[in-house]
Structure formats: structure tokens, C-alpha cells
Amino acid sequence: MSPESGHRISARSQLVLLAGLVILWCLVWGQVTPLSVLTGVVLAVVISTLFYLPAIDLSGRVNPWYVLVFFVRLIVDIARASIEVAWLVIDPRYKPSSAVIAIPLDTRSDLIMMLTAEAISLVPGSIVVDVDRQESVLYVHVINVHDDQDLAEFREEVFATEKRLVMAIGSKDDVWRVRQPNHLTRSNTGGAA
After folding, report:
1. Which of 190, 160, 171, 183 is nearest to 109 (CA)?
2. Does pTM top 0.90 for this prediction?
3. What is the pLDDT of residues 70-95, one digit of tens each?
4. Residue 82: CB partners within 8 Å, gap ≥ 6?
């Protein structure tokens, strides 16, 4: 990669970061006015100058069909898990059981890893408690697991979420990785703590 292309990636990701911070600022204030946009731009520049934020390498590809599939499935997962967690709360026979699971992802993209972590944390019953960025491993606390089969099923759900995200916005390299038939070996990696 030439220094010029690296500079373009950095500049592009910096612009995306600045735009994201401005949008977040406008959402916090609940309005899009010239003053809120201007103060958002000033604040975004100050934040990105004072605090180190690693550059996010964007793949440059978006597949609208897979974006739709990802969001529809996320909504279904949230609804299903909400009902399951609500049932656990009122079920008198429920015996609390949980685990912290190490889940090695296929992606090497910080953005995909972060979005995967956010997506599985939005689903009731699981939350990411730590991330190993160098090894692309998520450590997830999950409730209502009783045996190795429950752990394997949860890992497969996380892998499926990662795959949907990669197919929607991931790089060609990440798409190749998630299409490899390695789920049998991955399911046996990463233990519960």
C-alpha cells in the first residue's frame, strides 16, 4: 500500500468519524439546526485532536440486501430474547446459570468486531465484557447456559451475527474468511470462564 493510499484511507475514516460525532451531537440535542451542526463540528474536531482514536479502515462496500437481512434478524433476535428473558424472570423453576465465553471472530476489522459486539450486547441475555483487539476475541457474559451444547449454540449465534455484518459491509478478505467451512473447529475453541 502506498503512503498516498494510506493517507486517503486515514482521511476518509477521519471524515466518517467527524460526521459520526456531529450526527451523535445532533441526536443528543434532538435537533438539526445550523448552531447544533456548527457546535458539533467544533466539538468533533476538538475531540479527535485531543483524544487518540484509532483510524477505522472502511471496506468501501455496502450490500443493501445483507444490511436489510442484518437489521431484520437483529430485531427478531431482540424480540425473541426479550420474551425468553422475561420468561426466566417469572419462571419459578429457573435456576440461575451463566458463563463468560471467549469467542474468536474471523474478522480482522475493528469496525466489524465493534458492530458484532454491539449487536450481541443489544440482545437481552448477553453482554460483551471484554475485547481482545489483537486476537479478535470477544469475551461475552451469557445467561441461561447449562451445558456445552448451550455454549456451542451461543457461539454459533455470534458467528452468524458476525457473518451477516461482514456480508453487509465487510471487506472482500473478511467475506472470504467467513465463507470458509471452519465452524466445526471454531466451535471447539474458546472456553467458558
Report:
1. 171
2. no
3. 999 999 999 999 999 999 989 888 88
4. 124
